[in-house]
Amino acid sequence: MTEPPPNPFPDLSRFFAPRRVALVGATEDLAKFGGRCLKQMLDFGFAGDVFPVNPNRPQVFGRPCFPALSALPALPDHVGIVLPAKACIEAVAECGRLGVPFATVFSAGFGESGTEAGAALQAELVATARRGGVRLMGPNCNGTVNFVDGFAMTSTGTINGPRRPAGDIGVVGQSGGAAQVNVMWRAQQLGLGISYQSSSGNDADLDIMDYAAFMLESPRTRVVLMLAETVRDGAKLRALAARSAALRKPVAIIKFGRTEAGARAASSHTGAVTGADAVFDAAARQLGLIRVTDTTELYEAAMLLRQPVLPAGNRAAAMAISGGNLVLLTDLAAALGMTFPPFGAETQARLRRLTPGFMAVNNPMDLSAGAIGTKDVFGEAARAVLADPAVDIVVPVVTLGAAEDIRAVAAMAAGAPKPVPILWTGACLDDPALTPQVLVAEGRAVFRDSQPCALALSRAIRWSDFLRRREGAAPPCRPAGVEPERARALLGDGPRTLSERDSRAVLACYGLHGPAEAVAADAADAAARAAAFPGAVALKVLSADIPHKTEAGVVRLGLRGAEVGRAAEEILANAARSAPGARIDGILVQEMVTGGQEMLLGMSRDATFGPVLTLGFGGVQVEVLRDVTFRLPPVTAEEADAMLSDLRLAPLLAGLRGAPAADRAALADAVARFSWLAADLGDLLAEVDVNPLAVLPAGQGVRVLDALVVTA
């Protein structure tokens, strides 16, 4: 097992749990943000010192009100600021002069406005904070709730009334409404408890990953739920994911902007640019982040992810006294990758002894007839199934029942050595006070419908599988013999497009080679050089100014003898016609490679993560096939092989209808080597395109047939 990475995030202990706090812009007027924020703080039961600051009021809610931060009797750990945007800058400057470590700027009118003036104000606000050593939440935010220590600096009505008990789920988001209402409040309505919550707005300084990291490190948090309108710093997200995995505390995330319209909305709401969604999706899987699509899925997943036992695999068992619910659950779970294996012989014998002659011993198991009039047959059957080594998860399905029976199922789930999510679709017949919310508050995972149950199970299985693979895997290691410094020298300085030959020279520094080749000056020279090859050749115009050679008509394949000279004249003429100003460096004469599977291997730059690998089925139809997958570099050969399994056309590599199997091991090695090129040289590269990469039959390796490198 690898050593856990160090924690690179700031210590936010005094941000979330200050000893003393001030609110600049405090008022008793509850129609104003400063009034609601102060009232919520006081009603929430904060035990530390609270200093209202407003030069126009001697008192606020019966407390002394101070004219300025400099007039306070003690230095606050955390200052809230509710002022016009321009005035916030001076307030933050005063925090810096006094040595205040943290400030929350609630006010709007900054980068989220989409104006140059707003962006300039936000830049000035951040610069002022940094000069003074102040860390900022916001601006344009709705603040923080700490159920563990009883501190709230927010205006949200979701915390009205008696303070709810602290739980073990952290919630972070840039949005106030979505994070505080759709997730925090709705989760509490379900019976879950929250440890910490933050709604951080523009994330101009501290961001959602900083708050999430604090929650992960807290012993009071088991799961973090994140709503991200934008993620600007991919390296920071990778660091957060590494801490999540090291601590074995999952992060479930909604990343807004899946569609083009959604991306525009996210951008206009936060003033941010959203990275490509397919890349984010692949990166989340690679990093162990659990991506969901809606807010309900966040807290429904958390119900199962917070349990002390994770699934050891995807083998499920289900039992019910309602056959219809079993069929629905089984269909939905199977579609998400779960299996329902037959019970072992010992389990079948135990189940038959429970209700002889009444039920078929199948998985899933309908107990309808056998359970009627028999005490605790449901719980006994569940315990028998739990002991079966072929079962990783047990799902009891409850409809309507007596409190004694429902309590027996819950007790069995509480002490089980395997996950036991309860699907309870009905109610308790003899005790209306016994509800799913009660069982959830007691620590059980209770679902009202089959689809949320199946989805939560699939996510818990994915998280558990990620942890197992991570513990057994060696980290990526740079292959022997690579030459990053030579590759850097070949790339040169400044942005430019390399010719195919120069591009393949860079790839060769990482052990990725093409066919034998020569460069000819003209058609006659091409014919002469082709004669030196034992078989057919390919001809290409060599020009960095013609990156898409097929479309320009400057490629000819499978040429022999007199065909070579004629083809060379044709492609030179096509080059002059399609790209009149292009610089022509000659004609590339290449050994013809046949019989391989054409793949695409590429690197591009993502707005969030920087260099990103692309692997897919290639050739001239790559845009039509669009069968690609993504990873963040570097990757191991084992991870590269797993990438291949993501592709729809992956069975082609095994050979179909008598075709030889492709050299999958050599392809995985090539992907791993290419990933190190992206990792080592990513700061110098805008794009790398290897298309096609010919994967020859097993044992014969791969060949780079065409390549394009564009420097940054």
Description:
By secondary structure, the protein is of the alpha/beta class. Helix content is 38%, strand content 19%. It contains 25 helices and 29 strands. The chain has a seven-stranded mixed sheet, sandwiched between helices. Strands 24, 25, 26, 27, 28 and 29 form a six-stranded antiparallel sheet that branches. Helix 4 (116-132) links the parallel strand 6 (102-105) and strand 7. Helix 5 packs across helix 10 (295-305) and helix 11 (323-335) packs across helix 17 (450-472). It is flat.
- Which strand order do you get reading across the main beta sheet? 9-8-11-10-12-13-14
End-to-end C-alpha gap: 37 Å
Number of helices: 25
Structural class: alpha/beta
- Uncertain runs: 264-275
The total beta strand count reads 29
Helix percentage:
25-40%
Radius of gyration using CA atoms only: 31 Å
The average pLDDT value, as a whole number, equals 92
Largest sheet: 7 strands, mixed
What amount of the residues lies in strands? Answer: 15-25%
Gross morphology: flat
